[in-house]
Design a protein that fits this description.
Low-confidence stretches: none
Structural class: alpha+beta
Shape: elongated
Oligomer: single chain
Mean pLDDT: 82
Distance between the termini: 40 Å
Radius of gyration: 37 Å
Largest sheet: 9 strands, antiparallel
Number of helices: 36
Length: 1009
């Protein structure tokens, strides 16, 4: 076949042009995203019950739902968090589960639980987790001329309505937008405050006013009347639509007529805000923009920018600010990776030119890079793989290996031609002769990704893109090396009378001399080398145990989220003023968005917080500036609010969602002797003991809050004929929360509240309630106050109720804490503990990856055994992995890196790449021995023949990874440990293939002979 196609250069060239054209079209159609689109088997059930205490939420709603939802099939874990006004239940399922069917099952279970839940609560919301749930960015809308720290008024209520009805609708109409999630809006409310003196003088009660309002809001259905042959519709409408309609309501009392405005002070004002959002200190509405899963990030950003420009022109008084821009992070990371890809190709070409010493041959070999990448992009489009930092990193790893096959083919063709063969025969035989070992090399490299795809389900799906990127590019490079390079090699040299001189061998004679001297030394000291090899085996195990382990590598961020829990029952307004004071004077902050109190987001991309908690997004110029800002704010909080707790974490992205990188290093779950949640005193005693034992470790305080509990005297209420509903109604009137009417305004409605506008507890307790006989009974006579100190959050899981203690510390400190907790658990009968956290999950992940490495080596052994028809030679080849792994882990430790998912994947990938040189070398030695060459001479000749190809293939892979040896973006930080592991592994593996493998081969087969 090769002899046939080398005479058809035009046909081959036209096919290549067609592939290039198709590739250009395919690249334009590939979606661009930060991360691969993976289905996350996670469902969140959100409970909303305003005005309810944390105990009511837990006992009446969350506990029944938790019991019902624990029966969902395929459930891996369940956890719940009840807080004032609401709660969440998080369900994690087995990887690979059908999330759509589970979504239906969860809704069915909730429907079954609804009869057990309070009748007046809204149905819990069910939200599926997805990679696309993370907003592409947030859009904050505020007034430009508003002073920082100014309180919201009616003007802001108008802004909220504008954002909800205009801005959100404009963005949702864009093809790239899946949905817009809104928080921070406020609405208006109409308050009718009765004049107590006038009402007392006239003998009018608030109940009379309430009846008058409801009687004047009537909308009858249409009536029809007949008039001869005609029929007419009559519509009677007395609906209240405006504040003037309310003011003009007629109140009839004792045959006297009054307007409501004569008895009440009526005004429209912004509703009480339980949640406040500020952008750079100004009141704002925040929109989380979610992109379509198949949309390109760049298209969405361009479309949103166009909408924002139009809105800024039409409404110059408004400020539209984009924050938490994932598209910016994507552009930076993708641009970095693209430049790294070009740098890798340039480095590869320079290596080829330096060793081959012929620019035409170097260009011919380098031609395989763009062709292989174009074929890979076409396959990406067909398979549905997006351009993301994972798939692009796979391509960059592949760039260094793409040229390997071409180097081997060109080198073997030249050797055959120089041995006296005709050019056509040299090309045909040279290419065919190395096809089997090259195919074996590609298969061994790709085989390491087969078990990697099954890594923890989601993680395997995430790195499917990287695996496919490398696999497709390698098979494409094999096809190019076998079918394209021979054609253009023949075109270049068909007029040559003889093979070109071996400039590479002459120019690199010192390498051959150095190689021979080192090989002879190794063979003379074979016993010493074997002893060192044996000692490396236990050293590798010890090093694996000693090195720190974590799930993800350390990533430097320039933005992040700060969560503050004041641990006191403050209002949202006081919370807001404290946050404003904290951010004042922080000069490193480029932009900030503060969220205090309850937020209105539907999806779970933003953590749920209570009125006494705050969530602050900070954006700084550099990671060091962000750290300085966070440290300054933390010190300020400790100085002024020592009871508060502060937590810093990265702004939400897919990695956090999948790998729970915000998970504490250690979570201790406390339960009492009955398996229930421990008392506050028990939890405090445990944390105090832990704090005394480990004074250098930050142990968080028990988060509690004080609540005012009103206890009604049932006997007195019965004596005065006062019902609970009457008492509740009176309390709502006194605090101005008696909702008597709602006026529709477009898609929203405005509540009309009747009652006093007072929330001072002393004035409320001095007020009275009407008895059944019309007597005013003081509230303080039938109600007693009690201050209750309880948990702020109530947690539970499929194992029952518990209280969590979260600790972040080093691995050695965590180990000491675990031992202490185990001993504490054995001594205490009234408290039991269980533990989890990143300390355990990272070790579990590293254990899985170690198992995958073992499975990969077994697959490699099976492939090599099939190729060489031997059990010994695959063992010789794979023995080098012990040395490679030891030195890679040692290098990671020396460079201050940890064993994490990226460094372990680097070790696994290295295992598939590094043995390729040994495969070719063993194959060459076997071929020479079959031709009758003695053992020692076969080893030396094979070493000379494969020295330059081995060095070139290794250097191209190493130089392709060099651009990754810098940090500065999430893509670079993620790939740094993988690149470091590959570079160390390839450098060590090259030396092992050149010297150690021939030595072991010689020892075994010399004894046999």
């Amino acid at each position: 076949m090769i002899k046939y196609i080398i005479h058809r250069p035009i046909a081959v060239s036209m096919i290549i042009v067609a592939i290039v054209v198709i590739g250009i079209v395919a690249v334009r159609g590939i979606p661009v995203s930060l991360m691969p689109n993976v289905d996350i088997p996670q469902i969140t059930v959100k409970v909303d019950m305003p005005g309810s205490s944390v105990e009511e939420i837990e006992q009446q709603v969350v506990a029944p739902l938790r019991e019902q939802l624990s029966q969902v099939a395929g459930l891996k874990s369940l956890s719940s968090d009840a807080r004032m006004d609401g709660g969440n239940i998080l369900l994690n399922f087995e990887p690979g589960s059908n999330i759509n069917l589970l979504f239906i099952d969860v809704n069915e279970k909730i429907d079954m639980a609804m009869p057990q839940l309070p009748k007046d609560m809204n149905r819990p919301k069910v939200v599926k987790a997805s990679a696309t749930d993370i907003p592409a960015f947030y859009l904050d809308v505020a007034f430009k001329n508003e002073k920082k720290g100014e309180q919201a008024g009616n003007r802001f209520a108008g802004l909220s309505e504008f954002v909800r009805n205009v801005v959100a609708k404009r963005i949702e109409q864009l093809p790239s937008t899946a949905m817009v999630d809104i928080s921070g809006v406020t609405s208006s409310e109409i308050v009718c405050v009765p004049d107590e003196n006038k009402m007392t003088a006239l003998g009018i009660t608030e109940e009379d006013l309430q009846h008058a309002i409801s009687d004047n809001n009537i909308q009858l259905e249409a009536l029809t009347i007949a008039d001869g042959i005609y029929r007419y519709n009559i519509h009677f409408d007395s609906q209240i639509l405006t504040i003037d309609d309310i003011k003009n309501i007629i109140v009839r009392h004792e045959d006297r007529l009054f307007q409501l405005r004569d008895i009440c002070t009526i005004e429209e004002r912004p509703a009480l805000r339980n949640g406040i959002i500020r952008h750079d200190g100004r009141n704002s509405v925040s929109l989380a923009v979610i992109k379509q899963s198949d949309a390109r990030m760049g298209d969405l950003k361009e479309a949103i920018s166009g909408v924002v420009r139009d809105l800024e022109k039409a409404y110059p008084e408004m400020q539209f600010s984009i924050t938490r821009d994932q598209t910016e992070l994507l552009s930076y990371s993708i641009n970095n990776l693209e430049w790294n890809l070009l740098a890798a190709a340039a480095f590869t070409f320079l290596v080829l030119l330096a060793f081959m010493r012929r620019w035409r041959l170097a260009i011919l070999v380098a031609l395989s890079i763009p062709l292989s990448l174009i074929i890979t992009f076409i396959c990406f489009n067909v398979i549905g793989i997006s351009m993301n930092i994972i798939s692009l990193s796979g391509l960059i790893i592949g760039v260094g290996m793409i040229v390997d096959n071409s180097i081997i083919v060109i080198d073997n063709i030249l050797q055959k031609w120089r041995d006296g063969m005709k050019l056509e025969n040299a090309i045909a035989q040279g290419a065919c002769e190395v096809f089997t070992p090259m195919l074996s090399s590609v298969l061994t490299t790709c085989s390491v990704f087969v078990p990697l795809i099954f890594l923890s389900g989601i993680a395997g799906a995430l790195f499917f893109d990287q695996s496919m990127g490398i696999t497709i590019s390698l098979f494409a490079s094999l096809a190019v090396a076998m079918l394209v390079l021979p054609v253009y090699f023949y075109m270049n040299y068909r007029k040559a009378a003889e093979a070109p001189a071996d400039k590479a061998k002459k120019g690199n004679a010192y390498l051959f001399e150095l190689y021979e001297r080192c090989l002879h030394w190794i063979l003379r000291h074979a016993r010493l080398c074997v002893m060192v090899f044996i000692l490396i085996i236990p050293a590798t195990i010890l090093l694996f145990v000693a090195i720190d382990k974590q799930t993800l590598p350390e990533i430097d961020y320039t933005d992040g989220l700060m969560t503050i829990d004041w641990n006191s029952g403050i209002s949202a307004q006081e919370n807001d003023s404290r946050v404003l004071a904290l951010l004042k004077g922080q000069h490193y902050i480029q932009t900030s968005t503060s969220m205090v109190g309850t937020q209105d987001f539907l999806l779970s991309h933003t953590p749920d917080i209570t009125p006494s908690e705050a969530l602050i997004y900070l954006k700084c110029a550099s990671p060091s500036a962000l750290k300085a800002t966070c440290d300054s704010i933390h010190e300020n909080i400790l100085a002024h609010y020592p009871e508060a707790t502060v937590k810093f974490e990265p702004a939400g992205n897919l990695l956090n969602m999948i790998y729970s990188s915000d998970e504490p290093d250690l979570m201790i779950r406390l339960q009492n002797g009955d398996g229930k949640r421990p008392g506050v005193d028990q939890a405090q005693a445990f944390t105090d003991t832990l704090r005394r034992k480990f004074p250098d470790i930050s142990v968080p305080s028990v988060t509690t809050e004080e609540n005012l509990q009103l206890v009604a005297d049932v006997e007195k209420m019965s004596f005065y004929k006062i019902s609970y509903s009457q008492l509740s109604q009176r309390l709502r009137e006194l605090v101005g929360r008696n909702d008597v009417l709602r006026i529709n305004r477009g898609a929203s409605n405005v509540p009309v509240l009747l009652g006093a506008d007072n929330d001072d507890r002393r004035i409320i307790m001095q007020s009275s309630v009407k008895s059944g006989d019309g007597i005013d009974v003081p509230l303080s006579y039938i109600i007693t106050e009690r201050i209750v100190n309880g948990y702020k959050h109530l947690y539970g899981n499929d194992g029952g109720e518990y209280y969590p203690v979260q600790i972040n510390a080093s691995s050695s400190e965590i180990g000491d804490i675990i031992q202490f907790v185990v001993n504490y658990d054995q001594k205490q009968e009234d408290v039991s503990t269980s533990m989890s956290g990143a300390y355990y999950s990272s070790r579990k992940l590293v254990g899985q990856l170690t198992g995958i490495l073992a499975v990969s080596l077994l697959l490699l052994f099976f492939i090599l055994a099939a190729q060489f028809e031997s059990m010994v030679q695959p063992t010789i080849i794979l023995s080098e992995m012990i040395i490679d792994v030891f030195l890679v882990v040692l290098g990671l430790w020396l460079f201050g890196e940890t064993l994490n998912i990226m460094s372990m994947i680097g070790i696994i990938v290295m295992g598939g790449i590094v043995i390729n040189d040994s495969i070719l070398k063993i194959d060459t030695i076997n071929r020479l021995r079959r031709a009758g060459t003695p053992l020692m001479k076969a080893i030396l000749v094979a070493g000379h023949e494969r020295l330059l190809p081995i060095i070139m293939t290794s250097l191209t892979t190493i130089f392709a990874m060099l651009p990754f040896m810098s940090k500065g973006s999430i893509g670079a930080d993620m790939q740094y440990p993988l690149s470091l592991a590959l570079i160390i592994g390839m450098a060590v593996g090259t030396l092992v293939s050149l010297f150690f493998v021939p030595m072991v081969y010689y020892i075994i087969y010399n004894r046999k002979s």
